[in-house]
Amino acid sequence: MARLDDSARALYRSEMAAAAATTKPDERWRHLERAHIVSQPDPWLHTCNHVAMFRFAVGQRDRREAIGQVVRIVVAAPGSLTGRYPEGNTGRVGAGLMTPMPIPDDIAATLVA
Questions:
Q1: Angle made by CA atoms 106, 36, 32, in degrees to the nearest 5
Q2: How far apart are CA 60 and CA 103, in angstroms?
Q3: 20-39 burial string, b = 16+ CB within 10 Å, else e?
Q4: What is this structure's pTM?
Q5: CA quadruple 22, 34, 71, 101: dihedral positive or negative?
Q6: How many domains does the chain have?
Q7: Does the residue 20 lie in any domain?
Q8: Cβ within 8 Å of residue 41, ≥6 positions away
Q9: Range of the domain at 54
């Protein structure tokens, strides 16, 4: 199982705090997506991120996203534990469950460091 170092954990916490602090839905999703990219190697943080996405989707009354997040909550920890997750994936329903995506440069620099 991959472990996140302190700088990656700090970035995850920063993105989750920014998501909680904004009242703009698009900004909240962006921060949750960035936190998701960072969290993927860690089963606990990865699952927590999908729970946060689920809660936000429910609050937005977005049924499709909420149902998709339930599926992702179930598979997040096993995917992290086995290393079977699509790197860079933003974690949203529209991104596809197993579609790899480019990792933003600033996040990639933190994950490599």
A1: 90
A2: 26
A3: eeeeeeeebbbbbbbbbbbb
A4: 0.95
A5: positive
A6: 1
A7: yes
A8: 1, 2, 3, 4, 80, 83, 85
A9: 6-112
Q: Flag whether 68 is in a domain.
A: yes
Note whether residue 1 is domain-resident: no
- What are the pLDDT digits (tens) for 2-23? 679 999 999 999 999 999 999 9
d(CA 48, CA 106): 22
Is residue 76 domain-resident?
Answer: yes
- What are the start-end ranges of the E strands in the chain? none
As given in the structure block, the two tokens for residue 39 are: 């969290």
* Sign of the Cα pseudo-torsion (16, 45, 52, 79, in order): positive
Residue 67 token pair: 């149902």
91 close to 53: Cβ distance less than 8 angstroms: yes
